[in-house]
Task: inverse folding
């Protein structure tokens, strides 16, 4: 794990999104995120160098390998925000809303 990923993981642990580094693979079950060109200035807002950097983080934190289809969706989401997937952007994590019936 690179230092940036460790900083992100440590912050998500500190803010109660995940229990511990050993449970980092559970990240996707408890978090959602929004990609923006700016930081929301929260403890859960992180800068990624480009989409490859973000995808590497997702591969590290996900129990499933990120497929080419998912990579396409991520890049489409970046483009939808008017951003270039090859340039930096911010990912702002927040608690995933769960709708109960």
Result:
């Amino acid at each position: 794990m690179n230092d940036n990923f460790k900083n992100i993981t440590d912050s998500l642990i500190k803010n109660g999104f995940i229990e511990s580094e050993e449970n980092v693979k559970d990240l996707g079950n408890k978090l959602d995120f929004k990609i923006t060109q700016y930081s929301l200035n929260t403890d859960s807002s992180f800068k990624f160098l480009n989409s490859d950097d973000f995808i590497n983080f997702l591969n590290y934190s996900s129990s499933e390998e990120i497929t080419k289809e998912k990579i396409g969706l991520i890049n489409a989401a970046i483009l939808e925000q008017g951003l270039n997937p090859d340039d930096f952007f911010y990912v702002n994590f927040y608690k995933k809303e769960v709708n109960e019936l």
